[in-house]
Amino acid sequence: MERKRILVVRPDELGPSEHKTWRHLRAESGAPENPFLDPVFTTAVGQVVPAARVAVLQDDGTPVGFFPHEKGPLGQGRAIGLGVSDSQGAVLRPGIRLDPRTLLAACALSSWEFDNLEAGQDLFVPHAVEELADPVIDLDRGYAHYLEGLRARSPGFVKQVLAKERRLARQVGEVRFVHDTRDPDALRALMRWKSAQYRRTGRRDRFAQQWITGLVELLAHGDDPECRGLLSVLYAGGRPVAAHFGLRSATVLSWWFPAYDRDHGRYSPGLVLQLRMLEAAAADGIRMVDLGSGPARYKDSLKTRELPVYEGAVVRPGPGGAAYRLGREPARAARRFVRGHPRLADAARHTLTRLGRLREG
């Protein structure tokens, strides 16, 4: 007799066989190999977030699905690594039919919130309240082909960046790029630059949150080819001037934490780093770079297309679901309204920047 059940475990309770099945199910779905939906990322989050859990869907004892999540007070759930994860959802065998509220009930969740739900997550997309654009860079035809297209789309962009790189070399010193380094000093420099950027623009400093810093440090020391941290650094005159820490699988690189030394800002070292990174990534087997949702001028210049991602929540009836709606929906609705009105969005960004300057001053 066929038995279907859902077990909820800590991420570290999954073994190599479950990891292998997880990845096999991802491959069967045909979705990109996004490292944020790899078991290694969920396991790393579990080491710094005690509330991290994984629901394992079984059919006659065989895993047929995995649902990584975090469980908060009153059973309010959220996507694993919410706040830093750029791709969210469940990993399910194709063809599985399941009521998402039944899944939440099995996990003792009253709600489950997401802000970067990947396309194709048919279980949860009906509960989305907004579709966002996720710009990506396709490198499957190689860097030379990409660069040719970039020059055609933005004729002056590449020329200006390369001119600034030459000026950086003349005025600061030899420019050197390292695609994959474990340099701890460079990682610390990146975190300092990024923290300063968050404060300067009035945003919450992610690196002031211990779990995020711990997560980055864990992933920086990982060596699994399906999901590991990648630190790329641009040096000038022997010192780091720009760096990026991202997460990569065998074929997808997720753009995560870019930053640069503002003392060298006139040379646009971040853009120089990006072009160098794209060339090295293509040579290293990366077929797509996911720039992550959220507006940025450089993303518009570099992208080749956009993928949809979704924001929303599945909410069950009851006190916990009601608490979620009261606590989260007003703020979410306000953000949607601001994003939908460009002038308001610009005003909000300027206000945040002014507040950041006041805090710094």
TrEMBL record:
This protein's name: CelD/BcsL family acetyltransferase involved in cellulose biosynthesis
Keyword Transferase assigned: yes
BioF2-like acetyltransferase domain segment(s): 159-299
Keywords from the UniProt entry: Transferase
InterPro entries in UniProt: Acyl_CoA_acyltransferase, BioF2-like_GNAT_dom
GO MF entries: transferase activity
Gene3D superfamilies named among the record's database cross-references: 3.40.630.30
